Target: Phosphoribosylaminoimidazole-succinocarboxamide synthase
Amino acid sequence: MARRKKVYEGKAKILYEGPEPGTLIQYFKDDAVAGVNAVNQAPAAVEGKGVLNNRLSEFFMSGLNSIGVPTHFIRRINMREQLVRMCEIIPLEVVVRNFAAGGITSRLGIPEGVALPRPIVEYYYKDDKLGNPLVSEEHIIAFGWANQQDLDDMVALALRVNDFMSGVMMGVGVRLMDFRIEVGRIWEGDFMRLIVADEISPDSCRLWDMRGLDAPDREGQIREPGPLADVYTELARRLGVLPSNVTHTTKPTLIN
Model:
């Protein structure tokens, strides 16, 4: 990869120029992004995480493409790299919440784990120095980050991703508490459309384990649902995309 021009480097990924016009190579690093909304918090390395996130993001993005939800994903190149479409990233994190956890519990006093009346979509302005603050549609339109049609399309995209992801996770005994996506603009001639960009992986999801909740533990107590332990490896194993040469244990990364 040293022969290719670096376009951008973030906390968990590096983007290089692609082999064809309009493409990029997305490289997954091992840096963890716990506390991504914390100001000036440096990431720590987690061995093998990049390989697993590459596989997991490929799995989710390919699945979305197959059901007609447009993404930037084209194909996986190797263990750490994938070919993606170049797009203009809208400077927002779009968060979908299905259950109360993280920031919504502290802001609104809703007990953690409570099912929300419906999926709630929130927007966070992408600026690490500001801590990625929660913003309203009024802020977004006033400052020109997106227009009303963009917002309507972003909500529709996010809810379709939520339907797909919730079903996939439920099938492997995992509750999708909440997640975030990034959205990009692409142009096809004079026509602009929005697509799911960046990645979908445990770094951008809050996942709770639902397996074995009815079985008593050694003390005879029924286990309560909670964060999925060893989230990268365990999720990859349950979804059948775990490379045979990756073994490590980490705690899940949660969004605020």
Confidence is low (pLDDT under 50) at residues 35-43, 249-256. The first helix runs from residue 49 to 66. Residues 88-209 form a domain with the D-amino Acid Aminotransferase; Chain A, domain 1 fold (CATH 3.30.470.20). The first strand starts at residue 6 and ends at 9.
